[in-house]
Write a structure and sequence with these properties.
alpha/beta; 249 residues; Rossmann fold; 7-stranded mixed beta sheet; globular; 10 helices
Length: 249
């Protein structure tokens, strides 16, 4: 098992080095241990559909850390961030491990958060806080508290913009990773930016190494106050997105 661990560790470090993403040896060990613990917990709790360690290195760890070169130029003042719908702890745990940023990871599925609490405890990750809470409830509890919000494909872009707006501080940044969203999804998101006090910063298309997939990364910035009352009630963002004419109902 130790030989396997070391070979996977060498693979991870090589791929990150090729992508010019700098991690220390200790950080690389934590990243790989997290993945292995996720796969162990996955026998009892459905955290991921990725069962191969090699595939997890690309589709979980590298997929998460691909955000760093895009985030880093945007701000030197990121101290904390929120990961919406964290699932198995991606991208939140890798980002926190490598940057030292204070991370809050949330999921609406309590079993996933409980499993992650055990993993975070085993890894002694001091900068990671886990919450079983809906994003709308968190926005009411601690509005405008985060420098950065990240999310993988947990909802359509417009919904994630609405979720993030009341949680971001002024000049805070939302980063969303998607596969291949439709033109309609992108244009619907664009149509609500002004309502949410947000603007588009960039859209980047990134290829994972060795054909493991394409990622479209959307970056938005909080530039002003929301022009509608946010957050709305639980579940309304998905049922009645802000781009729909009847969104108030």
């Amino acid at each position: 098992m130790e030989d396997n661990f070391n070979s996977y560790l060498l693979l991870l470090k090589k791929e990150l080095d090729n992508l010019r993403i700098k991690v220390t040896d200790a950080q690389a060990v934590l990243l790989l241990k997290h993945l292995l613990l996720v796969q162990e917990k996955n026998k009892d709790v459905n955290l991921t559909h990725i069962l191969s360690v090699k595939e997890g290195i690309y589709k979980h760890i590298i997929d998460s850390l691909l955000l760093l070169p895009l985030i880093s130029p945007l701000s030197l003042s990121i101290n904390n961030f929120l990961d919406i719908g964290t699932g198995a702890g991606y991208p939140g745990i890798p980002l926190s491990v490598v940057t030292g940023w204070q991370a809050t990871l949330i999921d609406s599925v309590g079993k996933k958060i409980n499993a992650l609490k055990n993993i975070v405890s085993d890894l002694n990750l001091q900068h990671v806080t886990l919450r079983h809470v809906r994003v709308e409830e968190l926005a009411k509890e601690i509005p405008h508290s985060f420098d950065l919000v990240v999310a993988r494909a947990v909802a359509e872009l417009a919904v994630l913009i609405e979720y993030a707006a009341p949680l971001l501080s002024k000049d805070g940044v939302l980063v969303v990773t998607k596969g291949r969203p439709s033109f309609q999804e992108i244009s619907s998101a664009d149509s609500i930016l002004d309502l949410c006090g947000m603007k588009t910063v960039s859209r980047e298309t990134v290829l994972l190494p060795h054909g493991y997939g394409e990622r479209n990364i959307f970056i938005y910035k909080k530039i002003g106050h929301e022009k509608v009352e946010l957050p709305r009630k639980n579940g309304i963002a998905k049922m009645h997105p802000l781009y729909m004419k009847n969104y108030l109902h």
